[in-house]
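Morning - 5-amino-5-deoxy-1-O-phosphono-D-mannitol inputs below, output right after.
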Amino acid sequence: MCGIVGYIGDKKAYPILIKGLSRLEYRGYDSAGIALLENVDKINLYKRKGKVQDLVDFIGDESTVGNVGIGHTRWATHGPPNDTNAHPHYSGNSRIALVHNGIIENYDTIKEALIKKGHTFTSDTDTEVLVHLIEDIQENGGVSLEEAIRIALNEVHGAYAIVVISKDEPDKIIGAKKSSPLVVGLGEDEYYFASDATPIVEYTKNVVYLEDQQIAIVDRKNGLRIISTSNKEVSPYVQELEMELEVLEKGGYDHFMLKEIYEQPRAIKDSLRGRLNAKEGWVSLGGIKDYEDQIAKANRIIIIACGTSWHAGLVGEYYIEDLARIPVEVEYASEFRYRNPIIRKDDVVIAISQSGETADTIAALNMAKEQGATILGIVNVVGSTISRITDAGTYTHAGPEIGVASTKAFTTQVSLLAMMALMIGKKRGTIEDERFQRLIEEMEMLPTKLEGLIEKSNEFCITIAEKYKDASNALFLGRGNNFPIALEGALKLKEISYIHAEGYPAAEMKHGPIALIDEEMPIFVIATQGANYEKVVSNIQEVKARKGKVIAIITKGDTTVKELADDYIKIPDADDFVVPILATIPFQLMSYHIAVMRNCNVDQPRNLAKSVTVE
Ligand code: M6R
């Protein structure tokens, strides 16, 4: 959580920092701040509770002079969101300013020791402790800023990405990272720091993704130098960004979430490109090609993820067990890492993550790696931590997802898992040729079907949203590989509209949730034609007998459920295999419209952040 930016160069830093913070606002948006180095005697530091725009309004006509600066947008960990806890934080002598993303776990002990030495603190944050520690080391040891930072980072435990400026070394900006991401952008005589590449892409495509325990020192004369926290020189590995600026803009949509819903046909097309060919009858995932044999021979596949990515993992379990006949366990990363799980060397562990930066998923992966398992990743953000620590992996190619609620990342994750199941099934000979061919044809038709579905269902979803927007509770039901879609539908509704919602396997309803049903309760049911159709129809009858309101997702041409349901949305006729992807769309659209009608902040729901980089 939290987004950080930094700039040194000849341009005015202020607009660059503000624009960068707006791009990173998805990472946290409870307070924001900037520090601009005007001269050796002056840092202009402004911070404010609220969003980046509140900060801009607060700064108003104040001085924004300076071509070195740092900025921060916060998701609170230590101390409530307020002006004082907002970053940047000053050292005691106000000569050093620092922004931080992460958690310093031993801040309490360090703080006590510093208080004994006479330091006083104004905020509740762990970050202020770190900047005081740097100051203390510098003053008592008579060392440079860079050396003080290096020594301090060896004393702290936890996660950090920091960027630091100092009045005493005005031609320098220093960044460092461990467990939280930090990218350095290399322009012409100018350098950028940011939590991800989105604030940088507008200015340069050349970037260096810092590795853990690396410190990047930029000075105007000598440019970029990287050292490790153990003081070894590191040669910067410069990569070229593939991201285009347009994908970071709303492009005429009211919200990023809506734009990203509409992008799904394109995103899935990109995800399938070069990996599946129905005409020639093959599926191949380049990124994990070298591990195909190992996966096919695995005794067990463990999928670890959080939130929406965990739901995608659950669909993957249905796919892989059905087509490849390998046992799959889907684990919440946060539980897996703390419950002493049995991990064997012939296990294949797959992490699924949009951001590639989720702290629990990274920790669970590292644990599996230490115990000798093969670790693979299904990740969206190119160059992210998970993509770098895994043995191999495959990118979803959804493109940047800015809305906090995951949409296109989810459907592309599911598409990748579908391809993976087909690939392993083919290799193991557990899927008949005719079914293999039929399913890859279904996959190839997905982008076209999705396009039509989004266009046709949006209006229906608006009408349905209007009808149910004032509900206090909702239930989402699905069976088989649509059960995870019910979970995902419920998560989408609750996270952006704050309506309490639960997802259940349809048949489980009668073991408890049925008690909640009354005429006020909307029940969203996936009732498409296919293996579980008759059973789901019975579940709908059970709801109707208790006067619940049924909103059904049905297959085009269906008449039975159409008659039974209060409202329905049609999806195109398709094999059960791809229905989870199609059925996701109406749930996304309905949640979106309900949230808009309830005046909720769709792209930045309260209390949430896009990347959960703290445990
Ligand atoms: O970046 P990740 O996929 O690892 O993130 C995991 C969850 O935090 C994420 O899926 C979250 O649940 C979504 N914002 C929900 O829409």
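Note: Residues 256-597 form a domain with the Rossmann fold fold (CATH 3.40.50.10490).

O.
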